[in-house]
């Protein structure tokens, strides 16, 4: 007697199918009621929506998502991209993570602010966020996409930690890999991302921002006694 395994496949998302797959994408802003105003403002930013091959769906060279009809406002797209109901349908966007090391090979960790909509108060790497659908941060082929994500990393290091672009020049970002992951934050929100990861060696970095709770250096290659 043989066992039968049923595999449910998510329909690929394309510029042609996204309207049908997510018909209420432009009405989901009510999900943000009661959240911090700054976090709501950040939801107005434009995520780069991808197909299953990590290719942007349509042309994202302007501040609107041109692969979508005009009724698909950018804020709605970003909100929808973080709702688990849409994530489970396969909605995927581009992201990045930066691992910043000092001369002692210590990794700078960041504790996310309590006001964050996804994963509040949790410890994470130095900086993780999304490139936007704006000139300079997009890209279809790998080299172009990586260059765009590096520019986005510069922007967010300044925004989140007050680290200026001059302290983190583009050429010093070391591309490590890309990962595809999905993670629920709670019953409503989560992440589904194609994420580029970078390491960045530095001697000394000064931070001067309040978009995080705490920073902490993680000692690499060391263990607690008995660990």
From TrEMBL:
Enzyme class: isomerase
Span of domain Nudix hydrolase: 91-227
UniProt catalytic activity: isopentenyl diphosphate = dimethylallyl diphosphate
Gene Ontology MF terms in the entry: isopentenyl-diphosphate delta-isomerase activity; metal ion binding
Involved pathway(s): Isoprenoid biosynthesis; dimethylallyl diphosphate biosynthesis; dimethylallyl diphosphate from isopentenyl diphosphate: step 1/1
Keywords: Isomerase, Isoprene biosynthesis, Lipid biosynthesis, Lipid metabolism, Magnesium, Metal-binding, Steroid biosynthesis
Cofactor needs: Mg(2+)
Gene Ontology CC annotations of this record: cytoplasm
The keyword Transmembrane belongs to this UniProt entry's keyword annotation: no
EC number: 5.3.3.2
Pfam families: NUDIX (PF00293)
PANTHER family associated with the record: ISOPENTENYL-DIPHOSPHATE DELTA-ISOMERASE (PTHR10885)
Similarity remark: Belongs to the IPP isomerase type 1 family.
Protein name as it appears in the record: isopentenyl-diphosphate Delta-isomerase
Organism in which the protein naturally occurs: Hyaloscypha hepaticicola
Organism ancestry: Eukaryota, Fungi, Dikarya, Ascomycota, Pezizomycotina
């Amino acid at each position: 007697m043989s066992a039968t395994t049923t595999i449910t496949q998510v329909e690929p998302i394309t510029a042609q199918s996204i309207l049908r797959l997510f018909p209420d994408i432009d009405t989901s802003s009510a999900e943000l009621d009661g959240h911090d105003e700054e976090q709501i403002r950040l939801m107005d930013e434009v995520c780069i929506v991808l197909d299953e091959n990590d290719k942007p769906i349509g042309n994202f060279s302007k501040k609107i998502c041109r692969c979508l009809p005009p009724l698909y406002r950018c804020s709605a797209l970003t909100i929808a991209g973080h709702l688990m109901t849409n994530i489970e349908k396969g909605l995927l966007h581009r992201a990045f993570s930066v691992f910043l090391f000092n001369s002692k090979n210590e990794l700078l960790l960041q504790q996310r602010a309590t006001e964050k909509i996804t994963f509040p108060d949790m410890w994470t790497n130095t900086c993780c966020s999304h490139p936007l659908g704006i000139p300079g941060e997009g890209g279809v082929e790998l080299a172009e996409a990586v260059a765009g994500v590096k520019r986005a990393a510069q922007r967010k290091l300044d925004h989140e930690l007050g680290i200026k672009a001059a302290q983190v020049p583009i050429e010093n970002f070391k591309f490590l890999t890309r990962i595809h992951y999905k993670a629920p934050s709670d019953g409503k929100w989560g992440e589904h991302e194609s994420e580029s990861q970078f390491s960045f060696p530095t001697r000394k970095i000064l931070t001067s921002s309040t978009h995080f709770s705490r920073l902490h250096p993680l000692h690499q290659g060391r263990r607690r006694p008995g660990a």
